[in-house]
Amino acid sequence: MNSTVRLQLSVLMFLQYFVWGAWYVTMGTWLGGTLHFSGEQIGLAFGTTAVGAMISPFFVGMIADRFIATERILAVLHVSGAVMMFLASTQTTFGPFYAVLLAYTLCFMPTLALSNSLSFRQMDDPGREFPPIRVLGTIGWIAAGLIIGTLGLEATAVPLRIAAVSSIVLGFFCLVLPHTPPQKAGRATLRDVLGLDALKLLGERSFAIFVIGSFLVCIPLQFYYAFANPFLNELAVSNAAGKMTLGQMSEIFFMLVMPWFFRRLGIKYMLLVGMAAWTARYLLFAYGNNGPLVWMLYAGILLHGVCYDFFFVTGQIYVDRKAPGDLRAAAQGFIAFVTLGVGMFLGSWASGRIVDAFTQGSAAHDWQRIWMVPAAGAAAVLILFAFFFRGADSQTETIAALPATV
Question: What is the CATH number assigned to the segment(s) 191-406?
Fold first, then answer.
């Protein structure tokens, strides 16, 4: 891979995650604090990304892989998404807002997999070349949070408009990416698209426990993504969006040290540490404040590296190792559908209902009781997983290079 292609792919990753980070982190504050949407409505709005994650395999498996060059479909999806995102920023009632945001996420979520697949196609050694390019995505997410937080835009529609403008820039930039034509031909079946061939892996007890545990723990996880920013703003934490980027900074660090942990802990205990970190994060949020205990809020944010890398990335590695070569793609698609799709969607709905249940007056919330719910949920899954999961010990296996995520 030459330096020009490396620069193109780095810019692609930066813009891809700048767009996502520009609207996703602070949307809950705008919806709740300015538009006065209910907790359930905010949760459902964040659940649109889960719906997009469930639908996106159709784009990847039936269109991009078979009919249209990847860079062209990326351009169409990003420009179309820009229009939807701008329209979303002009809505003030839930029904129209939800419909337009759903249309946007149906455009955006497939681009996550498509940008990765396009990058892999240009690389001679993805395991070595992809991580330093993909980390630009995390930097893009951090840059978006710092800009929005520093400018004090969290309770406005401006972050969505920044995302819309950035999407247009990204869409046109995609047209100058290296040409990446379809590799496959023929008709894809629903079984291919959803990775249903991976269902045969559920016959193994450990893999079935892993899938069930991953699905269940994704339900409390969505509390953070939907309500952490409104929570920090309600506590009057200054530049909350900027401070939340500390989570992505810690993510980069823990991604770099994951090989060391793999050699010493193995797959099972890596997953358990990840689940325990989610429980600890919610307990820190429950008892922290914007006074003497503000360190607990910072600690909860900084745990993001452990929360995400030790659970999601370790889970992806476990699936890759357990699945036979001819089922690996199907298995990854299936676990993404179960966790990022169905699990996160249920978590979005449940988190909104819980926030509504502990609303005090027109705006204030009993955050301690709210955060104790996902803390208890994550802890329960942790205990069940510790007792029933019997994954193969991976302490002697090393992971040479892992891509950062958000």
Answer: 1.20.1250.20
